[in-house]
Specification:
The chain is of the alpha+beta class and 460 residues long. It is built from 17 helices and 14 strands. The strands form four sheets. Strands 7-8-11-12-13-14 form a six-stranded antiparallel beta sheet. The protein is globular. The two termini are 40 Å apart.
């Protein structure tokens, strides 16, 4: 697991917008950031504790995604080695961080070469970026059907040499990840590669995915052995259990985080998995999809039609990525208990309450020009907990000073709250406001004159 991260900007001009962006994401002072930029020092230099690793990945990914969107060039250093942004993206995605699109190649250029020339560059380069470039070219050749390029990648990933080039293991891991995601069922070339890599400390995590994709049910016994072996790292065992659950439709991953990086020993259902193996590895029932209100398919009012458009937009995201054990981006009827709790807490406008009753968001996260880092829209089950850090503190066990009591947080964008203003209810609806966090005070501005108009913005 990569442990030490440093990020630099290529520019040495500390413009006001750039300083503001870095302050918002790093929490550092203006003078410290300005000095780092002007002297070409890292603006981020951290070795995250393993318990906070996932949070660190999410936080940094949000910043770098914004760099990518704005075209701000930056430099990545991992464990003392210059790496490409795309490599860092793969590290973060391994820990369950959702990242839209592909981050850039640090060098931004590739050279037409033969597999033999690329192999030489891959093996002899003392620069992680150059090695990554060679890998990218080899991967493209392999996708185009060049068997010799695929052989080079496989043989490099198999190398367990003692190397002063710290990027060596990073490239081995990345090659395995790329091959695992692109492999086909019953690929006789890659099957032994993945099988032998199951217990490799570098290749093991992605070999699990590649092996079950290639071998299918024939991989079950080996992966169960991995899950039950306490000498194998927890992350690898968790990934094996997750892959077994998804492939067999057994619910071994129920009540566990979507990312294996968030699993603890208690999430691994060892006895249940062992019994399943002993019973012949039967297929499971899988998970039911979340319930959808009929109005999403057959809307009869303008508001229902608007929400139906929102659901169609979310459906495209569901098609791209969906974990049946932890479904995301659904609109589903709220539980009566959750509705009762929020009714006790607030007198909400009818339009918003109706939305929560019939179309309550379930782990909904949306991208768009309106948002800095993507917007999380709270459902009825999350609404009360979503006030934490704004109107109240679960740590201090009290309400927080400075928060207007008539504002209800209905979602957030990288910490910036979006609220319903209950002091300005007009008929059955109320305006939606937002403010930037971390400024010492809340300066709210209107985003939409009503919640219905806010949904229109989400649909656009």
């Amino acid at each position: 697991m990569a442990s030490h991260f440093r990020l630099f900007l290529e520019t040495m001009e500390p413009t006001a917008p750039l300083i503001a962006l870095l302050r918002r994401h790093t929490g550092k002072g203006m003078s410290e950031l300005r000095q780092a930029i002007m002297t070409h020092q890292p603006f981020l230099d951290e070795t995250p504790h393993h318990n906070a690793y996932s949070e660190f990945c999410t936080r940094v990914a949000e910043l770098l995604s914004e760099f990518e969107a704005r075209g701000i060039p930056y430099i990545v250093e991992v464990d003392g080695v210059r790496e490409s942004p795309r490599y860092l993206q793969s590290v973060f995605q391994r820990w369950g961080v959702v990242i839209e699109g592909q981050w850039s190649d640090r060098r931004g250029m590739h050279f037409a070469s033969t597999p033999e020339e690329l192999q030489t560059r891959l093996i002899t380069s003392s620069d992680g970026g150059a090695a990554y470039d060679a890998f990218q070219d080899l991967a493209q050749l392999a996708k185009d059907g060049d068997g010799s390029a695929l052989d080079v990648l496989i043989n490099y990933a198999r190398r367990t040499i003692r190397s002063k080039m710290l990027y060596h293991d990073h490239v081995r891991e990345y090659i395995t990840s790329e091959l695992a995601h692109s492999t086909a069922v019953r690929d006789t070339i890659l099957l032994p590669f993945f099988r032998e890599g199951l217990r490799d400390p570098v290749r093991g995590y992605w070999s699990v995915l590649g092996y079950i994709r290639v071998a299918e049910a024939d991989a079950y016994r080996d992966l169960v052995g991995l899950v039950l072996d306490s000498q194998v790292p927890l992350l690898q065992r968790a990934h094996a259990a997750k892959c077994l659950a998804q492939h067999s439709r057994q619910q071994f991953d129920r009540e566990a985080p979507s990312s294996p990086g968030g699993w603890s020993e208690q999430h691994i259902r060892a006895a249940e998995i062992r019994a399943w193996l002993d019973s012949g590895c039967p297929a499971g029932p899988g998970y039911d999809k979340p319930t959808r209100h009929p109005a999403l398919d057959s809307p009869t009012t303008p508001f229902e039609g608007l929400v139906a458009k929102l659901d169609r937009k979310l459906a495209k995201r569901r098609e791209q990525s969906q974990d049946p054990a932890n479904p995301t981006d659904w609109l589903t009827p709220a539980s009566p208990r959750d509705l009762e709790e929020i009714k006790k807490r607030w007198r909400l406008p009818p339009a918003y309450l109706d939305f929560q009753a019939r179309f309550s968001p379930l782990r909904v996260h949306m991208e768009g020009e309106l948002f800095e880092q993507g917007f999380t829209l709270f459902g009825a089950a999350d609404l009360i907990a979503g006030q934490d850090g704004y109107s109240e503190s679960s740590v201090l066990k009290r309400r927080l000073d400075g928060w207007p009591h008539h504002l209800v947080v209905i979602g957030t964008d990288a910490g910036d709250p979006y609220v319903l203003d209950l002091s300005r209810v007009d008929g059955d609806d109320a305006p939606v406001l937002t403010a930037m966090h971390g400024r010492g005070r809340w300066d709210f501005e209107v985003v939409a004159d009503s919640f219905k108009e806010f949904i229109e913005l989400l649909v656009e």
